[in-house]
Amino acid sequence: MKTLALILFMAASTLSFAQVRSFSLEEAQEYALIHSLEAKNANLELSIAESQIKQTTAIGLPQVSAGLNFQNFIDIPTSLVPAEFFGGQPGEFAEVQFGTEYNTTAELSANQLIFDGAYIVGLRAARVYRDVARQSKEKSAQAIKTNVANTYYTILVAEENQRILTKTKANLEEALFEITRLYEEGFLEETEKDQMELSLGQVESNLNRINRQIKITYDMLKFQMGIELGEKIKLADNLELVMKRVNPGALLSRDFEIDSNIDYSLAKTQTELQRLNWKKEQMGYLPKLGLFFNHQQSAQRNQFNFFDADETWYPTTIWGVNLSVPILSSGLRYQTTQQARIQYEMAMINQERTQNNLMLQEANARANFLAAADQYKMEEKNMKLALRIFDTSLIKYQEGLISGIDLNQIHNQLLSSQASYIQSILDYLEAKNNFETTLESFE
pTM value? Predict the structure, then answer.
């Protein structure tokens, strides 16, 4: 029985371990592009645009419908006619009833649009709207990849901070052990031990905060990727590997091709959409032409015997042409057209504004990346220097050459330097990510 329980426990442990999925940065981004809620919405928007093209196209295709009308006259309408028609006196009226108790009409009709300028323009506009949806999907994908990358970087940096603090904690615990021994032997005052305990407590507090931050950031990453929060994942990339992949020279040498930028492409497409809308309103001045066909079979009976094949049905068949010519709208058409023209002009202004804004954005992203790279190099140097000073000071403190207060100040300096270093890594990676996003081309 114990053996069976052990086997079940090991199987459950193996299953739990197998459920932990590992993702590199690229794998996390690709997974999010398929499973995230934002990606699913973008795909649905594109499906709607594709459907709207088919819907608009169908307007110009034959429209066929059928109908059946049945009437049961409980009281047949009565009409008054001059009685003299039937030999009566002039001025008098006779009551007569025309029709039958049961009437049925079966109808088949068809319509075909021949010319409608607004339909032709609308068909082109539907295709442009599909381009808008496609570009919006690309923009959504770009935002998803950027957000996933930033969150991925945040976790890596937090775990690096966790590693540094864990190492610092171990060093302080070792130092506290030695100081406690010296205090108990009477070589040090209690204040010296208290100062070391204070430093250790500060590190433990920061470490607990970082642990909570890592858990929350993992949940954020899972949310962005479209993974259930209860599932466990881990990162396949480490911070050292990610930092080695950054090539500042290659990134800074890339040219900014604004015509390939997704935001500028969207602005141009929106301008084209407004131009077509203006043209569609102008088409309202042109006539519309269409064909129609109608066939009816009617039956009038005083008995409900419509399913009797021997009874007679009376056909009516017509076809014709519908021509609608706009003549006067009392300024309605003109004002609608003017509004469409103004919206088109506003779209052109927005396109120009987007272009200028993107040029500034690229310049800022480039400058921020350069500044972040310089800051990272400086903070890395400062952190190594602060760590060397603390290690030397800790030895001096153990030898009684400096006081606990001095060591605590140096330790605070180390913590501040480590925090600045960790933040500079995150700023550097995020600046790189944002710069890459700005330079990314849309095909």
Answer: 0.80
